[in-house]
Amino acid sequence: MHTPKDNQKRTLDRVLSKFGVGSRTEARSWIGAGRVTVNGKKVQTPDVWIDPENDRVELDGRPLTARQKQYLLLYKPKGYLTTYKDPEGRPTVYDLLTGVKDFVFPVGRLDQDTTGLLILTNDSAFGDHITSPESKVPKTYLVKASVLLSDEQLDRLRQGLALADGPTRPALVTRIRDGAKYSFFEITITEGRNRQVRRMVEALGAKVLKLVRTAIGGIEIGPLEIGKYRALAAEERLALGGMSKKPSHAGRPVVPPAVPRDRETRQAPRRNGKSARWASENRPRGHNGSARKP
C-alpha cells in the first residue's frame, strides 16, 4: 500500500490512537471486530488511509473527537518495559502513570534495563518530530562500560563507527572517570536507533553495565524522582521543536556545546569545585554549572 501524498491522512489505527482512546494494538483489535465506522460505513482494515480532519470516525456508534494534548516526562526505572501491555505480565511504564486518564504513547523507547528520561504524549506530530533523525534532537546518556576504555576507543564513538544498520553519526563523548575495572562516560547522540548506545559500546569490544538517559534536548532529570512523572512546561516543548509555527525554528536541532576532555585526570571538568555528579553518586540527575547542556 502506497502512502498518500496528502500529509494530513493517516492509517485508521493510528487515527484512533491519535484521538487518545487507546493504543494502536487495541485500535487494530477494535477495527477487526467491526466496532469502527468511517463516514457511516464499517471498516475492518486498520491500514486504510483516512483524513482525520474531514472523515467522521465512530467507535461503537460514538463519534471520536481529539483529546486535549498531553506532554509528560517520566523518569523510567530499571525493570519496566516501554510498551502498553506485556503478555508475560511484566511491569510497564503505564503502571507508573497513575492519574493519567487519556492514552499517551512513548516517544521512542528505553529497553528494560535502561533508566532515565522518557517522553509520553498523545500528540503524534510532536512525537514524530522528537524521534525523526532529521530533527537531530540530542539524547544524552551516562554509561558504565564493562572495561577500561582508552581515549582511542572513545574517539571512535566521537567520529562515528559502523553498525549492522549503517554508520553512526559523530557523537559528543566526555569521560567522567575511570574506576579500577570500569570506565564511566557521557555520550550525546542525535539518532534513535534500537539499542544504539549499547551496540556502539559493543562495537568497541565492551558491554554496557549501566545506562541512564539524563537529557532529551535541553531537558534534564533535575529533581524528578525515579518512577515519577511531570508535565512538560510549554517552554520545554517549544525548545524541543516541532511545535513552533515559525519556519525559522522548524526542525532546528538543539546542539549542545562541546566539553573539553581532561586526558590527564580522565575526568569531566569540575563544576564549582566538584566533579561530575555521577562520579560520586550512584543515581545521576544530570549536570549543572559549566558543563555542556544538550
Class by alpha and beta content: alpha+beta
Mean pLDDT: 81
Total helical segments: 6
What is the H/E order?
Answer: EHHEEEEEEEEHEHEEEEHEEEH
Give the termini separation.
Answer: 39 Å
**Major pleated sheet:** 9 strands, mixed
Q: Name the shape in a single word.
A: elongated
CATH superfamily heading of the domain at 10-63: RNA-binding S4 domain
- The CATH class of the domain at 10-63, by name, is Alpha Beta
The residue fraction in helices comes out at 10-25%
Q: What would you say the CATH architecture of the domain at 10-63 is?
A: Roll
Rg, rounded, reads: 21 Å
So what's the oligomer here? Answer: single chain
CATH topology (level 3) name of the domain at 10-63: Structural Genomics Hypothetical 15.5 Kd Protein In mrcA-pckA Intergenic Region, Chain A
Weakly predicted, low-confidence segments: 1-5, 244-294
Q: Could you tell me the strand content as a percent range?
A: 15-25%
Q: How many β strands by DSSP? A: 17
Describe this structure in words.
This protein starts with 9 loop residues before the first strand and ends in a 54-residue tail after the last helix. It has a domain at 10-63: Structural Genomics Hypothetical 15.5 Kd Protein In mrcA-pckA Intergenic Region, Chain A, CATH 3.10.290.10. The strands form four sheets. Strands 7, 8, 9, 10, 13, 14, 15, 16 and 17 form a nine-stranded mixed sheet that branches. The protein contains six helices and 17 strands. The relative contact order is 0.13. With 294 residues, the chain is of the alpha+beta class. A hairpin with a 2-residue loop joins strand 15 (208-216) and strand 16. It has helices at residues 12-18, 24-32, 124-131, 151-159, 196-202, 234-240; strands spanning 10-11, 36-38, 41-42, 49-50, 57-59, 62-63, 71-76, 105-106, 115-121, 139-145, 162-163, 166-167, 172-178, 183-189, 208-216, 219-220, 229-231. The model is unreliable at 1-5 and 244-294 (pLDDT under 50). Helix content is 16%, strand content 23%.
